Amino acid sequence: MKLNRKTSVIVLLLLSITFSSYNIATTLYQTKTGKVSFSSEAPLEIIKATSNKLAGILRTDNKSFSFLVPMSSFEGFKQPLQKEHFNENYIESDKYPNAKFDGKIIEDVDFSKDGSYKVRAKGKFTMHGVEEPKTIKCSLTIKGKEIKIKSQFKVMLEDYGIRIPSVVNQKIAEEITVDLSCSLLPR
Description:
This protein is α+β, with helices and mostly antiparallel strands. It has one domain: Lipid/polyisoprenoid-binding, YceI-like (Lipocalin). The protein has helices spanning about 5-25, 80-90, and strands at about 30-40, 45-60, 65-70, 100-105, 115-125, 130-145, 145-155, 175-185. An 8-stranded antiparallel β-barrel has the order 1-2-3-4-5-6-7-8. A hairpin with a 2-residue loop joins strand 6 and strand 7. It is elongated. The model is unreliable at about 10-25 (pLDDT under 50).
């Protein structure tokens, strides 16, 4: 079968669109069930809670990412009053419903091969309506079509406009420890 020049150009154009669309689709990885935990270890009280509703997307072609967690999704407080105070008095989750981290992975990563990497994620972390630049160390593991991310980092409450009244300053730490883990799959 002989194709004329016009038909050949159209076939090549369609093939290139098909393959470029495939390439774009395979560079996007996402999670909707990542885990975020925080711990406040103050002299008179330890407060811990966890959310399994971390959502995020990672573009492997340019190493950019965006992660978001609904602040009202945290569970596991020792007492219902802790959760109520967390959402109403400190985080104000009705007014500031999400914490968000957008940015890029700094180090080179070969997403096409299985392996483990120690990387830094650099970007803008937003919480309580305040956006701050932040660099977070992460462990990244690639196995097959899955990318796993683990990290632990600190957050200073005052950096995000969260004030601790003096009457409870022995019960809430000024610096909060955050642990994050998620598994991302092709979108």
